[in-house]
Amino acid sequence: MSAEELIEEPVRRRLSWSNRLINGFCSQLAFGQLFLRYPDGGATLHRGRFPGASGTMEIREPLKMASRLLTRGEVGFGESFVEGYWSTPDLAALLEVLYDNLEHLGAGPRGMRWSRLWDRLTHRLRDNHRLNSRRNIAHHYDLGNDFYGCWLDASMTYSSAVFKDFENDSLKTAQERKYHRLLDALGAQPGEHILEIGCGWGGFAELAARRGLRVTGVTLSREQLVYARERLATAGLADRAEFRLQDYRDIQGQFDHAVSIEMMEAVGEAFWPVYYQTLRSLVRPGGRIALQVITINEDDFPIYRRQPDFVQLYIFPGGMLPTPERLQAEAASAGLLIRETAWFGLDYAETLRRWRRAFHAAEQEVVRLGYDARFRRMWDYYLAYCETGFKTGCIDLAQTLLEVPRQA
Question: Any idea which residues carry the catalytic annotation?
């Protein structure tokens, strides 16, 4: 039976309280449609007044899912997927329906007050002081180089690519284009010394070294440190790159330019001023700083700031996205000149789509590494959640070029 042949809301058959709660959450749809199937064989179709995406949800444990929605709200929706209480043939499409209807589903369950307070406390206790920063980075990046190697492209780059042609560019090509774009923006010349805060697995450093630059990269991930050092040694470029296990607040010296790719998000709001002041103090007058930063809409920031989301609680502890306005304000407060900003949100959506596809293709390798079904669903939800955020414009990606003023 097709979705169109089903009885639409209001449902004429008797529903359990759990099914009624789930249906109530979905009943305010304004855009697209959402098709729900229940374990007893029943189904309902919710249609919005306007065209939009179409999603399907197979509810396996209605009572448990309803309990999560009631007590944990939006975070509970993601948690219920992780626990296997529901599934879907197309997670990104389903989440797109929900993203498109965020304002209209706002009257749905927000979670109980004690639950929201607990999440705020959890997030607060992960504040990025020096000790917590190491723990927070290890939580995510020290899952293992073999794990990330299963689904990242050959450049081992875990940040958005910049595409010229979504259809024909390989991910590796698009990642290298991103690195070249950042270097070109700096105007870096052979022999100059670049600082990279948050060096990842060394992809940027290798390309910069091949262009005749010297690079000092810092990370708090031991796994990344080992990989990056071996990578540059294998490439015969070890004399042009130094990698340190070091907090950005402890760096000393002066550099010609600096790059920091998707690092501000991991700094934490309380330390944004320190991050920018550190960048300014480490780059010579007239030197440039290239940042790549994920941003969140200004209108969404107050709630996001007050109530941590799924990604902050489960994937990036201590993380916080700035708004575009805050990005500029922090740079200006540090006395940095803003030279240009470009936006690449759809490029990140495509990057995430390809990562998620590769993650699914590598499922058996991930299993062999010891990661269970619950972990795999958590990462599947995270990747789809972020992809949909960029696709719908709830979050965006900025490349910002800053300059340290020349001394008078």
Answer: 386
